[in-house]
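We now fix the convention by which a protein and its fold are recorded. Here is one such record, which you should read through line by line:

>
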Amino acid sequence: MGDAAQQILAVIPARWASSRFPGKPLAMIAGKPMLQWVWQRVQAAPSVDAVAVATDDERIVELCNAYGVDVVMTSPDHETGTDRLAEVAAKRPARLYVNVQGDEPLIDPAAIDAVARCLDAAISRGIGVSTAYIEGATPEQEASPSSVHLVPTLDGCVLTFSRLPIPLSFREAGTRNVHVGLYAFTGDALRNFSQWERGPVERAESIELMRFLEHGQRIACTPIAPGSIGVDHPEDIPLAEAALRARGEA
């Protein structure tokens, strides 16, 4: 596996106290805790050298210990998953860190690899962050404030994010893209994030990566294939289970 500082470390932030779905990481999906599904997906990504769960709850620590999953206890006071990842980065040296949301039991390992490759290619341009998006929002995604839209630049970076369905079709129709909560960072980028104040746009839109844009930094981005199903509410579990059955995994 080599020296730890040369690894790509994937981190899965896992909170118990979700306002919409308390205890979500331990919710059972097709006979397994959701966090186990996510961990198995991340383990299958060839670019990832190590995986750790970052949590602030002993119940999640107990689950990880039972399944032999590396876990890092972090502060309960973090405002975002990226703040939690920054604490992990201060404890675990790595070349790159990939943030994989703990409520994505169907995340494609290829998507994780794509975001890591995207950042690897962008570092030489002085960029320390990358993320992903899906090309072409559905009408439901355009209507939902839960969806974050990403507008890319012509050279593969993020122009902006918004919960509004942007860009506006003023003179001609355009494609709207859906941001995917999959990020890669250098250690320096995470240290900067944890030290910067939240800007007015990040506060208004509740989009944590806006912090980099508001502080004048660039974010590389890459398109990925659709197909993952995020579990935000208990009623999303049957949808995830149906998708797993369709793939022959449940």
